[in-house]
Amino acid sequence: MGQALERREHTCGVGCCSTASMGDTMADLPKSVRINEEGPREGFQIEKGPIPTTRKIELIEALSETGLKQIQVVSFVNPKRVPGMADAEDVVRGFTPRPGVDYTALWLNEKGLERARATGKLTLQGKISIYASEKFSLKNNNRTTAQEFEYARRVLESYLEHRIPVERGSVAAAFGCNYQGDIPLQGILDIVRRIFELADEYGVKLKELSFADTMAWATPLQIKRLLGAVRGKYPDIRLSLHLHDTRGMGIANAYAGLEMGAEMFDACVAGLGGCPFAAHKGAAGNVCTEDLVFMCQEMGIETGIDLDKMIECAQLAEDIVGHPLPGSVKLGGSLASLRHAVALA
Amino acid sequence: MGQALERREHTCGVGCCSTASMGDTMADLPKSVRINEEGPREGFQIEKGPIPTTRKIELIEALSETGLKQIQVVSFVNPKRVPGMADAEDVVRGFTPRPGVDYTALWLNEKGLERARATGKLTLQGKISIYASEKFSLKNNNRTTAQEFEYARRVLESYLEHRIPVERGSVAAAFGCNYQGDIPLQGILDIVRRIFELADEYGVKLKELSFADTMAWATPLQIKRLLGAVRGKYPDIRLSLHLHDTRGMGIANAYAGLEMGAEMFDACVAGLGGCPFAAHKGAAGNVCTEDLVFMCQEMGIETGIDLDKMIECAQLAEDIVGHPLPGSVKLGGSLASLRHAVALA
User: Fold this and answer.
1) In this complex, do B19 and A231 lie within 8 Å of one another by their Cβ atoms?
2) Which fold has domain A31-125+268-344?
3) ipTM (interface pTM)
4) Of A156, A178, A231, B139, which has fewest CB within 10 angstroms of its CB?
């Protein structure tokens, strides 16, 4: 394994197009992917903590040494609602940035954006973000989908005013919703179309579409259907996935995404962001970074990430939160050392 | 979701053959799969225990009520080497079999087979089983691959003498080996050919080929390559997978197997068979039964298994071993109750 795979746009993923010549040409996999590490943000915001600020900084700096190019370090949200992020400014102030790494943050409103801007240290990324589930919008934000688009318009105007680049359209709860149930494919395509229309109206050229399986309803088949349909309509857009692992489908869904050409993944070191073995029942985190890196590397897809260093980060994350985290490769180990031992034997 | 998917032998799995018409026709998935539950055997043999015999029986009887058609209940092995299986006869004697369920056992030699036969209660299934890795054969059995085939011949003769049906060829460590490293595809195909030749010599018609990722080296791409190559040569054989989850690839590998038409999977309730959070570092069990059932059901593949009952079994298994087990759906829950709540709202 480990050979680079040429990306082939029109080669069948299951080999049926050329069953006779099974080999390196059978998968429509990207040559490389970009992983957006969200562990410090997704993870520490859910921990009952308190996690010392210095230890958050320690993890961010360790992650910076792995080859990651993008790390979401904090969220600027109401500290009364998310006490684990009350020290967001201190975290951002505290870490030493590594050149070539984008440090990003999450915010949910103008005030959060102001806090992020005020740090002067973060890469600010705007996006047009809509929930696929109207019931979830109503419950969370007290807005209908039509009102969500009006809100997104104001957010977009704010980004443009502050010269914050907007390259991403984002659809949350795209695969199902605990309040609305299954989300029809056509409904998501309609939302995507309206996102592009809104961007066009402001002369904004979106480069990337992100689909979040916020409540872990997705299966690989659904991933393929949705990304396949989107790719059919928007062949030049970069596809990104945000996959929660509550029902254990995270890596399989990521694989299905890779087969549909997804090139960007949010992921959390050690599977931070929820611990099925502690109090956070059912709130499992994002797909685990080092497990995703392992899969990609073994399939010949470049990530730019040093797997062994990422495993060390996962062990550090576990040490910081003080309880087991769900990732597997941090226990099972990479295959590199085994191959090395075999070669020496 | 939940609609039945027609099996289509020559439809592209990634939708590239018909990008314009993404829909139910995009996957080469089987209509139904058979799951061979191995939790009681894989799981209890690795637990430091001791697990009371009555509790093993309790789990076997609960599993019998889920719709499973095959449960491997014990292994007949040296109790000095595997103390957790010293009560194998008592377990088999103790449970009340449910009509329509095959209860099976594992044995590694003639003595084990004798013990299994003596129970008079088990479905005895013979197989021709070879390690893909010669170094693993040498280390475990002190036999070369050539000697393994000679041994397999004697085992086959014993099965025929005892009128034990032999329908399965089995290749262990088929995707990589801690002692030998990567296993070339051609090497596995050679072993498969020799397994068929041996069967032919005795007039035995194999119906199924099983590939075990014994040491968790496989990725979905490898699964597709191997099963694709095998399916190309032996289009009528039933494909079966035994997938260990040490590096978190189990469900993704199962999905890749499904896309290549695999119709049978070994699996362990709750992911029994190793606990990455206890002393059994890196020795994770088989792919988790209820997670696999969840994925299949949500993709419209029939399993015949009641997911909620299987989740209850997973919770029971966790209670029996007394520590967390790795399965996800037992915590995340099925989607049926969420859909039901949405429908009522």
Assistant:
1) yes
2) TIM Barrel (3.20.20)
3) 0.91
4) B139
